[in-house]
Every structure is written in structure tokens, then in C-alpha cells.
Design goal:
It is a single chain. It contains three helices and four strands; from the N terminus they run E-H-E-E-H-H-E. With 98 residues, the protein is α+β, with helices and mostly antiparallel strands. The protein has one domain: Alpha-Beta Plaits (2-Layer Sandwich). It has a four-stranded antiparallel beta sheet. Helix 1 packs antiparallel against helix 3. It is globular, with a radius of gyration of 13 Å.
């Protein structure tokens, strides 16, 4: 299983705007890559810190294609305007406990 993750530090006072921009980006990407589920979490201890997950990718090439698309690039540029920092990763599942 391949998962994508983002760790986002949002500029103070821009949290709602970040969540809206992230939602728009995820909605657009979900239309391009059906079957991938995107989730956004907010840190209870630090409300400016968010973690996003993308689950259900078929392979790394699908992730790379989505990230290289003009729509994704535009939406990511929009998201960066409200961030202090951010990091995107591609992760492989190592263990799962149910």
C-alpha cells in the first residue's frame, strides 16, 4: 500500500483559508484519480499544524502524474500562500494492526 502525506504549518489566522484551499485541491485531485481518499487532520495541541493523507494510490507513477498535473501545481501554489512551511511525502505501509 502506498500513501501520500503532508505536514503543514499554517500562518496564524489563516487556518480556515488553508482548510478551504486544501479541500479544493483534494476535490480536484480526486476527480483526476478516482479511488484515492484524501483526509485532513488538525493537531489539537497546535491548531496551526495539519496533517493530510492520501490513501488508495495504485502505484508511484499515479502519484507522480497527479503531482505533475497543472491543476495540482496551481492548487499547491495557492496553498503555499497561507503556509509557514510544508512537506509532502510518499510512504510505504510497513505494518497495520486492526
Amino acid at each position: 500500500m502506498i500513501c501520500t502525506a503532508g505536514i503543514w504549518m499554517v500562518k496564524k489566522g489563516r487556518e480556515d483559508e488553508f482548510a478551504r484551499r486544501w479541500q479544493e485541491s483534494a476535490d480536484s485531485t480526486a476527480l483526476e484519480v478516482p479511488g484515492v481518499v484524501f483526509k485532513l487532520f488538525r493537531d489539537r495541541e497546535n491548531p496551526q499544524r495539519y496533517v493530510s493523507l492520501g490513501e488508495g494510490w495504485r502505484n508511484v507513477e499515479q502519484i507522480e502524474g497527479a503531482r505533475e498535473s497543472p491543476g495540482f501545481q496551481d492548487s499547491l501554489s495557492s496553498i503555499w500562500r497561507v503556509l509557514d512551511s510544508g512537506d509532502i511525502s510518499t510512504l510505504d505501509l510497513v505494518a497495520e494492526i486492526s
